């Protein structure tokens, strides 16, 4: 570069007084992944399906995938008691829980619980899918793919019906506990 040419590039030097402190990295493991994601606040949903009997489980892995067509995804463990029914189901239900539904979330998360027993209010919805009462929003979706992902499957499904008009604020999951939003 000649003295008459100007260097318009900027060199950014980090301010070490405000730079975050980074701990020693740990080798990747299931425990490391769980520890990192305990710090990630996630919305709480219940996924339902119907085979010979209704099944359901609490999920924090729900994602919107596309608007056109309207696609969602979630992960489900292949060792889950719900997996055999979800593996064969043509349609599933997706329920966004409200902060008033911590006990419902815990019921659907608990292994061996009577998830559709007397305390759970539900009815058969479109396509014969169990639809939970009192949720913030729900969808019934047609399963379009089940993608292997380690000891889980990522289910991709297209919305066919739903209701977004439930009242309340969303339930969150953070650091191993159900929580409510704070203003």
From TrEMBL:
Compositional bias segments (type: Polar residues): 1-12
Entries under InterPro entries matching the protein: Flavin_Rdtase-like_dom (IPR002563), NADH-dep_flavin_reductase (IPR050268), Split_barrel_FMN-bd (IPR012349)
Keywords, in A-Z order: Oxidoreductase
Pfam family, one: Flavin_Reduct
Keyword Iron: no
Record Gene3D superfamilies: Electron Transport, Fmn-binding Protein, Chain A
SUPFAM superfamilies linked: FMN-binding split barrel
GO BP, one annotated term: pyrimidine nucleobase catabolic process
Domain (Flavin reductase like) ranges: 37-180
Signal sequence segment: none
Tagged with keyword Cell membrane: no
Region (Disordered): 1-27
One GO MF term: riboflavin reductase (NADPH) activity
Protein name (database record): Flavin-dependent reductase
Species annotation: Streptomyces gardneri
